[in-house]
Amino acid sequence: MDNWLWCLKTDTPQEGYELAILLSQKGVQYTQTSEEIRRVLRPQYAHDANSLIAVSQVIAINFQTVAAANNYWNAPSYY
Amino acid sequence: MDNWLWCLKTDTPQEGYELAILLSQKGVQYTQTSEEIRRVLRPQYAHDANSLIAVSQVIAINFQTVAAANNYWNAPSYY
Amino acid sequence: MDNWLWCLKTDTPQEGYELAILLSQKGVQYTQTSEEIRRVLRPQYAHDANSLIAVSQVIAINFQTVAAANNYWNAPSYY
Amino acid sequence: MDNWLWCLKTDTPQEGYELAILLSQKGVQYTQTSEEIRRVLRPQYAHDANSLIAVSQVIAINFQTVAAANNYWNAPSYY
Amino acid sequence: MDNWLWCLKTDTPQEGYELAILLSQKGVQYTQTSEEIRRVLRPQYAHDANSLIAVSQVIAINFQTVAAANNYWNAPSYY
Amino acid sequence: MDNWLWCLKTDTPQEGYELAILLSQKGVQYTQTSEEIRRVLRPQYAHDANSLIAVSQVIAINFQTVAAANNYWNAPSYY
């Protein structure tokens, strides 16, 4: 797979949350590499409340990682 | 998406818990961007005990992040 | 919602565990605000082993947060 | 409920694991307080592989908490 | 149950991962103590993709604990 | 099983994410050792949105471990 993840640092918590979304999507893409099949599956989970809750959970777990990497955006970063 | 998350700091644990709820909802909103479809799905999970438990779990995971970001509201913050 | 969470500190681990239960219930209450509907749903999960296991998992996640906030009740607290 | 949790410290990792089991059971007991109903439900999950995996997951989450509270049994404790 | 867990330290990450597998199995064994029943259940989950994913998740959670106990095998241990 | 995990350190976050994928796969392989059966099961989860979300969750949990082991790739490593 091409380069897609260089750094876990983001400027703001919202960008960090959006990086967590990307990480969650990549877990699916590595496992199902066909973009066409993923497109077929999309309505299956985007219209199912339990699937959407499960997606939000994966994002929450990845957001924990991104937030820790950014020291919760609390302190100035010297990296 | 518009700006919705500037900071993980809150004044009280309860506000932190409510921010965790917002984070959990955002995970759904980013994945299903149609407000109309989300409105249709709402009764599906709001009347199902297992879905509600799953929602509470996502909130719990996000609350871990928010609580850590606030040093558990234990110490004065100098940020 | 009224104030219900002022502090994550508790005197004992057991009170911390009971606070974790409260946090888990609140995640449901914020999502399904009708007390009547929640009362109807209660037998649905209280008589289902898998639902009860799922509830115990949410409590476990919240207990991680409460335990960390209390430094695992290991050291005297100076807050 | 009577007192059942005074301390998260244990002498050995195995006792810590067994405390994690107790914590996982308590989450069920607080939610379904009838011992009789819990006894009825027991065969339901003790003979279902997915339920047993779910139980093991709750134990794993609680073990994280107990292990952290004991500093992973790595260092002498001065508490 | 006999002694089975004396220490969370391992020499290598792979041994740590294998300890995480043992911890995951023990959660099942404590809950379903009959070796015979567990043998019956084994094909049920070993041939089901979702069960195998769930098993891998329990291992992942236990591996977090073991890895932290070993300081991620990064530094020399003086214990 | 042969040696497959020597170190949790990686040069980049993306390599860390890919190590998290390997860890997630290994949890399945240790539990279902037959490569043939795993090949049969593959289409079962690779075409099911909920399974793919579950896989992404396992990866996310393992990525937390790998990211922590690498200090989130923020600081130079002196190990």
Q: Which pair of chains has the greatest number of interface residues, and how are they split between the two chains?
A: E-F, 29 and 35 residues
Largest sheet geometry of chain A: none
Tally of DSSP β-strands of chain A: 0
The span between the termini of chain A is 27 Å
Give me the number of helical elements of chain A: 3
Globular, elongated, flat, extended or rod-shaped: what is the shape of chain A? flat
Category by helix and strand content of chain A: mainly alpha
Order of helices and strands of chain A: HHH
Instruction: Please give the radius of gyration of chain A in angstroms.
Output: 15 Å
Which regions of chain A have little confidence, pLDDT < 50, spanning 5+ residues? none
Please, could you describe this protein's structure?
The structure is a homohexamer of 79-residue chains. The first copy, chain A, is an all-alpha fold and 79 residues long. Chain A has one domain. Chain A is 66% helix and 0% strand. The longest helix of chain A has 21 residues, at 49-69. Chain A is flat. The first copy, chain A, starts with 12 loop residues before the first helix and ends in a 10-residue tail after the last helix. At the B-C interface, helix 1 and helix 3 of B face helix 1, helix 2 and helix 3 of C.
Comma- or semicolon-separated keywords:
mainly alpha, 3 helices, 79 residues, 0% strand, 66% helix, homohexamer
Topology:
The structure is a homohexamer of 79-residue chains.
Chain A: H1 13-31, H2 35-46, H3 49-69
Structure described in brief:
By secondary structure, chain A is mainly alpha-helical. In chain A, 66% of the residues lie in helices and 0% in strands. The model of chain A has no long low-confidence stretch (mean pLDDT 94).
